[in-house]
Fold Olfactory receptor.
Amino acid sequence: MAWGNRSNITTLAMEFVLLGLSQNYEVQLFLFVLFLAVYLTTWLGNVIIITTVITTRQLHTPLYFLLANLAILDITYSSVTTPKMLWDLLHKQKTISIPGCMAQMFFFHFVGGASIFLLIAMAFDRYLAIHKPLHYLVIMNQKVCMRLVVGAWLSGLVHSIMQVSMVIRLPFCGPNMLDNFYCDIPQVVKLSCEETYAVELWVVANSGLVTTSIFLILLMSYTVILLKIRIHVTVGKHKALSTCAAQVTVVSLTFGPCVFIYDRPFQKFAMDKAVSVLYTMVTPMLNPMIYTLRNGEMKGAIRKLMGRILCPGRK
């Protein structure tokens, strides 16, 4: 019997069936081309940012160091789910083993959590740059920047372990249909044949409420920073406003969908898949565009880099 026709699994089967975004083959081909373009654009945009920051001496500052690390996280985050989704769009059998599902959830929350904590570090960087301009480079030295990045990765790791450790112990012996294109906790928990109220409460508290609290704190912090820029900053005001506006946009694109998905009971909503596409594929693609389009210094450095690549003999 084909997996697509099974309604139940046993502990020996060890597979989930991913229903994906569509059951229509023509639609799946269109989505494959569309999301392949999105994925390649994500890689291209973020690799350009990383390469530009590494090769441009003027960009060897805390702000761009953190931005390059965010680009690395965007590439990694998109790669956790997109390759598997692209593969499934071309195949009728869309299955994933339970260990593979748990691994995908682990890395999804690991990298996603690291991204959230890195955005906190970037907000802290802007706060110091505006409120402590004379001491900024002393405080945000290379050692501090490295600690912030390592701290973001470690925080994401702890967050993921706390989340997945609650799910990995659940028994799965009932329905095996995951109504999504990747494994995530809200859908997987509902497939357990055990009472999951405590797990759902833990995930909502750990992901939903914590994410919402951080989002609100960041928005208030950026509001204070923007007011400070508007009232007190005279030199470089436009650059400071553009940088902060870009970070606010990225923060909203990152946190908004997370709040929608995790800060509520595990119930199915019509917009769930669209929101999942937004924060797993679209946001990692948009982040480099947002930072590049609103940052004249970055645009100038990218133009010089492209010039050196396309015309190697030109100085």
